[in-house]
Design goal:
The structure is a homodimer. The first copy, chain A, is an all-alpha fold. Chain A is built from nine helices and no strands. Chains A and B meet through helix 1, helix 6, helix 7, helix 8 and helix 9 of A and helix 1, helix 6, helix 7, helix 8 and helix 9 of B. Chain A binds a DNA duplex (18 and 18 nucleotides) through helix 3.
Chain lengths: ~200, ~200
DNA sequence: GTCTATACACCGATAGAC
DNA sequence: GTCTATCGGTGTATAGAC
């Protein structure tokens, strides 16, 4: 029980380091400082070294995504309600738009080759799950996939822009309008907003 | 004349390396291999070392942005025409969505601190220039800024998603609908599309 | 399970010959 | 202007004591 909590805390710290510095930038010195463990201790917990640390961090983020984003999307409630939950959960997931996304960090640069398969799979599950909500709302499946991609693309882009501009306004705007934008044109939303 | 061409070619190769590997991942060994110059030769052209190489690459991208994106946006033609040019130029600028954006690469990770001021300035100029087109088209200024941010955010997000999914469909879709989406609700476009 | 000490490769950077 | 050779520092990873 305590061991689980310890490992979970350790992994959370790993996620934070990798999210801030990326795979190459997250040196063992930084990881050691962030976790309070010496290098050798880290190798005790992750015998395969840094790559295993990063993979474990990626797995944890995947678990978070599953629990706090995807599971709520699969509920029985009305699509518009599920999407409003999504907005709320995304806002917390990305800490009001101030965090970077680990998927993005690992999908760029050298680490792309190491983790692209996992990232691709995770993104596709995310997109498919979101698209199903839109299909439930009456949107034709061929539009649903595109809109789901659009939503995730806007979230990622808003996080990037937030880093570049050092300001979270765009992220908050994207998150806020997401439910109505996604359901625009369906019976769920008679008059949606469109990039206002 | 030939010197200018040489330096320009060298800088272009630098941009490619930094865009692919990011600041930390672009080691001197890789830069040396990509340019065909030895380390010492690189230090002859960039006495302040890697940071100067990266700053020069960023400057070149800024020049490209100014010439092929911003200047066309400031023409005298109709806003819808300028935005259609924008789509075409963006498509080439990002090589059909297969390239990553150097702004994004440098805005994340360790290099953020080094270049954030330049990136922030470049993004703001881009946003302001695009917003002016929308104002010219009759959009209220307070909406114009937001829509311009939305456009750039979608472009960046589409590039990220393209890397993660290894597929450029989203980027092409974003680029194609950009003009109508940006002018939606203005007299220029009586019936725009909205995330179809 | 954590530590100190260390191995060895690679990093960015420089000196000096040509 | 480019090269070879080399520097000090840091990177990941490991050995072995406690």
């Amino acid at each position: 029980m305590q061991k689980l909590m310890f490992k979970d805390k350790l992994l959370t710290q790993l996620v934070n380091v990798f999210r801030q510095y990326g795979y190459e930038g997250a040196t063992l010195a930084r990881i050691s400082a962030a976790t309070g463990l010496g290098r050798a201790s880290l190798y005790h917990h992750f015998p395969k070294g840094k790559e295993e640390m990063a993979a474990s961090a990626l797995n944890l983020v995947n678990t978070w995504l599953e629990e706090s984003i995807l599971t709520p999307l699969r509920q029985e409630s009305e699509p518009i309600e599920r999407l409003r939950d999504l907005s709320k959960n995304l806002y917390e997931f990305y800490n009001c738009g101030q965090q970077t996304c680990l998927f993005t960090m690992f999908a760029l640069g050298e680490s792309k080759d190491l983790f692209q398969a996992q990232i691709q799979k995770a993104l596709n599950v995310w997109i498919d799950t979101l698209a199903q909500v839109l299909i439930d709302a009456g949107l034709p499946p061929e539009y649903a996939r595109h809109r789901a991609e659009d939503a995730i693309l806007q979230i990622q882009g808003a996080l990037i822009l937030g880093q570049g501009l050092d300001e979270t306004g765009a992220f908050e705007r994207v998150i806020k309008r997401l439910p109505e934008q996604l359901l625009n044109g369906t019976e769920q939303v008679s008059r949606g907003i469109c990039l206002q």
